[in-house]
Amino acid sequence: MPISTGNDVIDAALFVADFAQEVRGLEQAARIGDAVDVEAVNGQLVAGITETLASGAPFGITEAQGTPLLQIELMEYGMQVRYLGAVGTFKYRLKARMYDESGRRIYKTRLTCHTGMRDPDLPQSALTLANNVRTLQNMTDAEINAAFAAVARHCGQQFVVQMRRHAG
After folding, report:
1. Cβ atoms of 107 and 98 closer than 8 Å
2. Does 3 map to a domain?
3. Highest-confidence range of 65-74, 116-125, 156-165, by mean pLDDT?
């Protein structure tokens, strides 16, 4: 329930503006939901983790038998835009666990990647969503999907950096 200004005309106008903004926000969410291939975007998250893990200790990648197993569980992800016209932020939240050869857990942490669309570390393809409402209307499904995939890959890389920092 909106706060009353004490002026019925202003209160009614604010209510209509809030309602219209909510409807436009739902339309944008539906547009993104239709355009994003969730499996492909999650694949980019895994690719970001895998390519960064391959670059060194204390975690690395091997196909050898009898080595520790890293389990990643995606707990939450999405894009949040505080108000129409605002720059969107992405959030990915994971649980990471590592098990030794006997199945005993030897490592556990929770990781979060929370990044704005204007983050200078993001690839250029992700920056196309900076002016979210107008830009989304003019983007193809493939362009929207590519932007989300770029953010997912970036977050995958950031998760490995966080795990390495956490593990020492």
Report:
1. yes
2. no
3. 156-165
